[in-house]
Amino acid sequence: MDIKEIIKPENLVYEKNKVLTDNVMHYCPGCTHGVIHKVIAEVIDEMGIQEKTLGVSPVGCSVLAYNYIDIDWLEAAHGRAPAVATGAARVNPDKVVFTYQGDGDLASIGTAEIMHACNRGENLVVFFVNNAIYGMTGGQMAPTTLVGQPTATTPYGRDVELHGYPLKITELIAQLPGTSFVTRQSAETPGAVRKLKKAIRKGFENTVNKKGTSFIEIVSTCNSGWKVSPVQANEWMKENMFPLYPLGTMKDQDKESDEQYKVK
Questions:
Q1: pLDDT above 90 covers what percent of the chain?
Q2: What is the DSSP letter of 25?
């Protein structure tokens, strides 16, 4: 049979999304970033917004995202993606702008930027990949590191008296009036990926419709930083991270009216 007969549309089982490049991903085997990239690219393609989408990535494992998702990109300093994205979205109001950040970036050095961008209700989608450590720089403790969790800088586990508590940044973000959609998802099973894709589409649709900030946390693994296999990392995440960072949508509404904040 001729190969052209085999690849007819009715025989096609899977086709690589055209928004993904042909570059081989640099992420460690078992890393969640590759799955998230794939789903973001699928949504961009299905919505037909490739030419108008602009991504902003800062320092961290996400810094090379431009190599894999074929859209316009801006690079930002560590933690500053929301500030850069704010300028990009305001100057280009017809663009669909998103940031792609890790927990060491967004919840630590970038806390001020993300809190104020969300409070202002900037017309952005924020992807917050939470693997509970600094992944790229060697597995150090992050603001999201669990109590008792060993890292490169806490070999005996995170100690509350020394380091404080894990920061549940998404719960804080949900309280801000400028946010329209705040959710926490994962990507460790096909069912979880389907839920994540639905959330990603909701975020992009909100941006197209000028509904303010959509904040999507993805609880993720880092088997290299955690020093376990990919399978063990998924199990550890479900047993330890999901109880502290429960999955689900915390907010789904239009931005709050500014009437209650006005001087009488």
A1: 81
A2: P
In angstroms, rounded to a whole number, what is the distance separating the alpha carbons of residues 237 and 144?
13
CB atoms within 10 A of CB 56: 28
User: What's the rounded Cα separation, in Å, for the pair 39 and 21?
Assistant: 13
Distance of CA 219 to the CA centre of its chain: 9
Who contacts 179 (Cβ-Cβ below 8 Å, separation ≥6)?
118, 121, 173, 212, 213, 214, 215, 251, 255
User: What's the CATH code of the domain at 187?
Assistant: 3.40.50.970
Beta carbons within 8 Å of 137's beta carbon, 6+ residues apart = 104
pLDDT tens-place string over residues 46-83? 999 999 999 999 988 888 899 999 999 999 999 999 99
Model pLDDT, residue 3: 62
Give yes or no for a contact between 96 and 207, defined as CB atoms under 8 angstroms apart: yes
Q: Into how many domains does the chain fold?
A: 1
Domain range for 207: 3-261
Task: Report H helices in 62-143.
Answer: 81-91, 103-104, 111-120
